[in-house]
Amino acid sequence: MGATKTDHFTLQQNELASLAKALGHPARIAILEVLLKLDSCICGDIVNELPLAQPTVSQHLKELKTAGLIKGNIEGNSICYCIDAENWNKYKELLSAFFGQLALKTNCC
Amino acid sequence: MGATKTDHFTLQQNELASLAKALGHPARIAILEVLLKLDSCICGDIVNELPLAQPTVSQHLKELKTAGLIKGNIEGNSICYCIDAENWNKYKELLSAFFGQLALKTNCC
DNA sequence: CTTTATCATCGTAATATTGCAATGAACAAA
DNA sequence: TTTGTTCATTGCAATATTACGATGATAAAG
């Protein structure tokens, strides 16, 4: 064991969990914050901003890309990463809807 | 290696990542959905709702509790779990603020 | 006191994640 | 062509997560 039983849960549950998992590392939060802050998309400058080696950052970028949170464009020699605005807003709604489910009444505990 | 370099990131980054990590499993999403749906707080009925063994569910509950997303009260023989409304709304704001950072302009990629 | 029910904890196996050195691929500049 | 720059990929070691059987703790029921 050790493998998540993905097929036992609904698509929505897996989708939300998958998004959260991608956000579940401080380095990936930091990467997203860098991309949010900058007007122009930078490339390998992300590596310089983080206390991690280049392969490690590259790996985190890959995960963020797989999750759909960022996009990457080749620009000459270097590569330009930025937030995937469309998915970003979709995920924003998804999380907002999830957290908005709580009824206003005081809980029993 | 294999350990996250928590001390290299800011408190805010770690806090957000920690919350996301707690949400990063379909079983934990499912548990939260059960607790959100029910008026009265149930206890071990959560186990019956999920395709997982009791110790596994108990472990997930512990993680959600540690993250501050749920609370647990002893109620006679059984235990009553429910959403921690105060933290829930705090986290809602936290995520909303994070996702709200995206500027409206079209991205360069 | 004994039994049953409910839930947590322990121990362990399987798998996933994190991190980096080494290497590779692609392109620009000399 | 050779060199340097940029980033991805590979391979590996350390650690974390997931899952569950077995067991323990606690309280209600008999």
Automatic annotation (TrEMBL), chains A, B:
Alphabetical list of Pfam families matching this protein: HTH_5
HTH arsR-type domain boundaries: 8-106
InterPro entries reported for this sequence: ArsR-like_HTH, HTH_ArsR_DNA-bd_dom, Metal_resp_trans_reg, WH-like_DNA-bd_sf, WH_DNA-bd_sf
Keyword Transcription regulation: yes
Keyword Transcription: yes
Keywords attached to this entry: DNA-binding, Transcription, Transcription regulation
PANTHER family recorded: ARSENICAL RESISTANCE OPERON REPRESSOR ARSR-RELATED
Protein name as catalogued: Winged helix-turn-helix transcriptional regulator
Organism: Adhaeribacter terrigena
